[in-house]
Amino acid sequence: MLREELEEYVAVSRELVKVVVSDSAVADLTKSVDCQEDMINSLVGTELQTLDLIRDLMSVEEKVAHTVLAAEETKQKVSSRLHKIEREIQEVCEKNASVETDKKFLQKEVEDLKLLEDETEEIEREAQEDTTVVIPSALYTAKLFHSVSKIDWDYSCDSTLIKGIHYGGEIAQPLCIDSTQHSKIFISDYLWSLLSTDW
Predict the structure, then answer these.
(1) Residue range 128-139, pLDDT digits in tens
(2) Range of 83's domain?
C-alpha cells in the first residue's frame, strides 16, 4: 500500500517537474484557471436557473391549491343546496301530490345543481391534475446537479455564503464558505476536490 502511494507520488512529481520546466507552463496554468472559472460560472448559472424553476413550480402549486379550495367550497354549497331542495321535493310530494308543476320545477333545479356539482368536481379534478405538471428540464437539471455533486445546498443563507451538506464521503460534511474571504478559484478547487473520481 505504502509502496503504491510512493510510486504514485513519484509519478506526480515527475509530471509536475515536466510542467514547470516546459515553456507553456504559465499558459497551461492560466488556461486551467480560466477553465475552472468558467465551470464555476456555469455551475452558479445552473443553480440560479434551478432556483427560478423551483420558485415557478411553487407558484403554480399555490395557484392550484387556491383553485382547489374555491372549487371545494362551491361544491359544498351546491351539495348543501341540493340536499335542501331534495327535502323540499319530498315535503311537497307528501303534502300535495297534485302540485306537479312545482315538483317538475324543483326536479329541474336538482338536475341543474347536479350538473353544476359534476362540473365543480371536474374542475377540482383538473386542478389536482395540474399539480403533477412539472418542468422536466428543471427536474432533470436539479437531479443531475445533485447526483454529480452529492451536495444539498442551503438556499436560505446569506448570498455571500456558500452553505450546504456534502454527502459524498463516508460521513456527511457540512459546507460553509464565505465568498468574500476566498477567491472563485479557491472555491472552485475546493468544491471540485469534494467530487468523487470513482466512476
Answers:
(1) 665 555 555 666
(2) 62-133
